[in-house]
Amino acid sequence: MSIKTAIIGVGQTGYRFKRTDVTMQELAQEAAAKALEHAKMEMDEIEAFVLGIAPDALSGIDNVDRWIGQALGVTPRPQLRVNTGGTTGAAAAQAGYIHVASGMFRTVMVLAADKVSETPDAQWVLNTAMDPIYERSLALNAINMCSFQAVRQMHQYGVTERQLAAVAVRSRQNAMANPYAHLREPISIDDVLSSRYICWPLKLLDCCPRSSGACAVIMAAEQVAVSSPNRPVWIQGMGATSNTVYMGDKMGPGRDTDHADWDELAMAAATAYRRAGITDPLEQIDVAEIYAPFTCTELAAVEALGFCPKGLGGQMNEQGMFDMRGPMPVNPSGGVLSANPISATALARVAEAALQVMGDAGEHQVPGVRRAVATGIGGTLQFHTCMVLGEDL
Amino acid sequence: MSDMATASSPLIHPGEWHIHYDYAVGEIAERFFTELRDNATIYALRCPSCKLVFVPPRAYCERCFVRTTDWVKIGPEGVIEAFTIVYEPFDGLPVPPYAVAYVTLDGASTALANFVTDVDLSDPEQASAALAIGNRVIVDFVDERKGLITDFHYRLL
Description:
CATH topology of the domain at 5-120 and 210-221 in chain A: Peroxisomal Thiolase, Chain A, domain 1
Oligomer: heterodimer
Structural class of chain B: alpha+beta
Strand content of chain B: 25-35%
Radius of gyration of chain A: 19 Å
Strand content of chain A: 15-25%
Number of strands of chain B: 8
Radius of gyration of chain B: 21 Å
Strand order of the largest sheet of chain A: 3-2-4-7-1-8-11-10-9
CATH superfamily of the domain at 5-120 and 210-221 in chain A: Thiolase/Chalcone synthase
Mean pLDDT of chain A: 96
Mean pLDDT of chain B: 94
C-alpha cells in the first residue's frame, strides 16, 4: 500500500534564451526558493532531493548535479540525479513520487535546470547520443528523428504541413498569456509555413527553441500535504514505458510499435489512467500539459492519450478541439514549442499541470480544472511518462 | 555595488570539450563491417525464436532476449520507410542539404539508416516526392571501403 502523495509547491524561473546573470547553481537556487515560497516551507523541511539533469554536455558542466545539490544546501540529506534524455524532468518527478509513495521520505524536492543557450552545439551534443557504430555518422539528431515521425504521419494519415503549423500557432497563442514562456510573439499559419526548412518537413516554427531555466516541484506525503496552505494536488496515477533506441525497429515489417505513433505513451497512459480510475479520458481529464518539442509530436501524443482516434490529431486540432476554450485544452502554458530548457522541460509539464489543478496558473488558467495530465518523452522517442494529477485524494 | 558593475558585462568565460574515444565495435559489428568492407555485402542477424531479422545486427534479440545465431544476407535493394532532408547547417554535422532515409533492405525485418545520394535536393517539394515512403532504393557501395557505415549509401531506383 503506497503513501498518498501530493504536489504542494511549484517554482519556475521563467524560461529565456539566455540567463547571463546567474550560474547553473544560482538558476537552480532561484527555482528552489520560488517553490519553497509557493509551498510556504523552509529548506530544512525537505527530506530528500531528486535532480533532473539531462546530458551533461548541454550545460557543459560534467555531473553538474554535484554543484547544484551543494548550492541548495542538501547536506547531509540524500540527493539523486536522474537522466533519461528529454524525459529527464518527468523521470525525476517519477522518482520523487516513488521516494514519497514508498514511505521513505515525507517531503521531496524535485528540481531540474538547464542553460542550453550556452552552447550553439545542442544538436551536435544530441548527435553524440546516437549509436556510435551504426548511426552517429549519419548526422542524426533530435530534429531529424522527429522529422522521420512527421514523414510517417503524413504518409499513413495524410497529415499536412498546414495541420502541423496549426499546432505551432495555438501553442504560441497560449504562450502569450504565460509570463514564464520563452517565445511569446504571436505567429500565424503563414509565418510557420513560410519559415525555413530545418529538417523536411519540419520548419523553424515547427521546432522548439533552446531555453535556459529551472523548475522545482515539492512533493509531500498525505500527513504533511493536508496541512499545506495550498490545495494539495494528488498524484493519482503514474505510468512509464521504454522502447528500443533503434528507430528503424519501429518502421520495418518487424515493428511492434510504429515511429509515426506513440504507442509507448498510450501504454504509459493506460497504466496511469488505470491507477487514477480514468476510463473516459475526454470526460475525466480537464487539461493536458504535453511534452511536444515539435508540432508532429503533439499529434502523436493527443492520440496516445486517448483524446482522439489515431491519425486524427491534426484534423481535431484544426477544429479547435485542443484550444484553451476547446473541449480538451492542450498546453495552456504554450508548451515545449514556447520554451525548452531541456532538463527542466518535462518537469515544467508536471509543474504547469499542478498549477492548473491548484487554480494557480494565472492568466493561462483553464477554468474549473479538477484533473490534469502531464507527459514526458525522451531518447529516440523511446522513453515515455504519463502522470495524472487531481484535486481528489 | 554600482562601482563593481562594468559596461562590458555580462562576463563570459569560454569553454570547449575535446574528447577522443576509440570504440571497440565488438565481434558482431566487426563481422558486419568486415563483410561490408571486404565483400560489399550487408548482413543481418536472425533471432532463432521470433525469426525477426535485425539490422543493425544484435548479439541478443531485443524482443526475446535469446542469442541471435543466423547471419542472413540482406539487400542490396530495399524500400524507404522514412526520410528527412536536412537544410539547416549544424556545427559538427555535415554541410546541408543532405537526405537521410530509413530503408528496409530486402530480407530484413527492421530499417537501416543511411544517406541517400543522387537526389536533387534544391527543391524541397520535388525532392520529398522522389524520396517518398514506399519508393525503392539500391545500396551503392563506395570504392574505398573502410569498415564504416558510410561505406555505402542509398540510391533511388
